[in-house]
Amino acid sequence: MRNQIYVREAWKLYVEAARRALDADPDITAADITHVITVSCTGYYAPGPDYEIVRSLGLPDSVQRYHFGFMGCYASMPALRAANQFCTADPDAVVLVVSVELCTLHLRSSEDPDMIVATSLFADGAAAGLVTAREFDSAVPGFVLDRFHTGIIPEGKKDMAWMIGDEGFEMILSTAVPKLIGENIFGTLRPLYADEPEMAAGFDDGTIGSQVAHWAIHPGGRSILDQVEERLSLSEQQLHPAREVLRQYGNMSSATVLFVLRRILEEEGARDGERVAAMAFGPGLTAETALMTVVAPT
Questions:
Q1: Cβ contacts of residue 145 below 8 Å, gap of 6+?
Q2: Bridge partner list, 143
Q3: Which domain CATH number covers 118?
Q4: HEC string of 269-282?
Q5: Given 41, 73, 87, 103, which residue is catalytic?
Q6: Span 13-29, mean pLDDT?
Q7: What residues form DSSP beta bridges with 35?
C-alpha cells in the first residue's frame, strides 16, 4: 500500500520539479535535454518517473534515462557527479536531474529511541536542476561543478542503513552518527582539496572555513550540523542555509542538499567566484562531497 501511494503521487512531483527547472532558464528548452537522471529511495515502479518526465514534458524519445535508487540521503551528489561526467564526455549534453522523496510514507510507531529519532526528522520533498557544458546566453546563476569525492566511515555501517522489511521500508539511524561524522570529517573532506594545496592546508591551520565561503551540508539532523560547525570552525552564517532548510522542510533525504544549494544561490548573497563545499551523508556510513564555484552573471 505504501508503494502504491508513491506510484500514484510521486510522478506528479517529478514532472512538476522538472518543469520548474526548465522554466527557470528561458534559454534551455525541452528539446535541448539529452539525459534524465531521477533519484529516489522511497519508492519504485516501472515504467518509472524518468519515463513520465519524458512523456509529460515532451522531451525527445532518444533522451538517455537513468535512475539512482535506494542510495539514501546522499544520492543527489553522485547524480550530479554522473551528470558532470556525461557533460565531460559529450560537450553538447544537457542533463536534467530530478530528486523526489516521499519519506513520510514510511513513518511507523515504535518504542525504539533510534527509530523515533529517525522518523521524527524525515519529510517529503522534490528538487531538480540542469547540468550542462554547453554555452547558453543565460543570466541564470548556478555552480561550476569542480570535483567530487566519496568517503566511507566503515565503523558506522550498522548505524545508518535502509532496508525493505515486512511492513515497508525500515530506516536505521542511530544517535552515534553525528559523533562518527565529527570524528571523521577531516579525513573525508581532505582528498577533495588535494588539487588545491593552499586550500588543503586550511585543514591543518584551521582556516578551511574562511577559505570556502559557503557550506551546503545535508542537514541530517541538528546534531550533525553542530558537529560539522564545531569541527570545521564554521560560522553560524555558514551553517544558516542548512539549518533553515532543516527548520522549514525537515530532512527530505536525497532532495535536501539540493534545497540547501538553491538557498545559497538565491537567498544567502552568494557572489560570482565564491567557493561552495557540499556534503551529504547516507548508508554505509558514506559521505559524498563536492567542491563548486558560484557563477552569478551580472
A1: 80, 81, 84, 131, 290, 292
A2: 294
A3: 3.40.47.10
A4: CCCCCCEEEEEEEE
A5: 73
A6: 96
A7: 64, 95
| Residue 137 domain-assigned (yes or no) | no
Q: In this structure, what C-alpha cell is assigned to residue 267?
A: 537567498
Whether pTM > 0.85 for this model: the answer is: yes
User: Residue 40: how many CB atoms within 10 A of its CB?
Assistant: 27
Q: Which domain holds residue 75?
A: 2-132
Question: How many structural domains is the chain composed of?
Answer: 2
Please give the grid coordinates belonging to residue 127. Answer: 528538487
- Does the active-site annotation cover 103? no
Residues 41-86: tens digit of each pLDDT: 999 999 999 999 999 999 999 999 999 998 999 999 999 999 999 9
The better pLDDT of the pair 199, 60 is held by 60
**Angstrom distance (rounded) from CA 9 to CA 25:** 26
pLDDT tier at 157 (50, 70, 90 boundaries)? Answer: confident
What is the per-residue pLDDT for 167? Answer: 66
Tell me the one-letter amino acid at 107: L
